[in-house]
Write a structure and sequence with these properties.
Blueprint (H helix, E strand, L loop, with lengths): L2 E5 L2 E4 L4 E8 L7 E7 L5 E8 L5 E3 L7 E6 L4 E6 L8 E10 L2 E5 L3 E6 L1
Parallel strand pairs: 2-11
Antiparallel strand pairs: 1-3, 3-8, 4-5, 4-9, 5-6, 7-8, 9-10, 9-11
Length: about 120
């Protein structure tokens, strides 16, 4: 059974940086896609970024492009989300997800809170 555990969230000021981590376990992730999503208060969950476990190909939501970077360490079975130039509108619970293909995520983490003050 796949387990995803996020960490690294916190309270920061606008313009600061944070790095989220997602420790993945329970299977080999070769051929899988890993993603980050977020849910802001009162809003629907939205896509943030995704990465192909094998080739490292990435994709980003327009709202974070140029500020956030998704990466993975296959030796550590960990996915990262480096968030720079944070804005108050980035405030949300951030979730890690894993699936056999993009757009079809089977497993989700419990989420980590990111709060950006102005």
């Amino acid at each position: 059974q796949v387990q995803l555990v996020e960490s690294g969230g916190g309270l920061v000021q606008a313009g600061d940086s944070l790095r989220l981590s997602c420790a993945a376990s329970g299977r080999t992730f070769s051929g899988w896609v890993m993603g980050w999503f977020r849910r802001a208060p009162g809003k629907e969950r939205e896509f943030v970024a995704t990465i192909n476990w094998n080739n490292g190909l990435t994709s980003y939501a327009d709202a974070v492009k140029g500020r956030f970077t998704i990466s993975r360490d296959r030796a550590k079975n960990t996915v990262y989300l480096q968030m720079n130039s944070l804005k108050p509108e980035d405030t949300a619970v951030y979730y890690c997800a894993a699936g056999r293909r993009a757009g079809s995520y089977e497993s989700w983490g419990q989420g980590t809170q990111v709060t950006v003050s102005s």
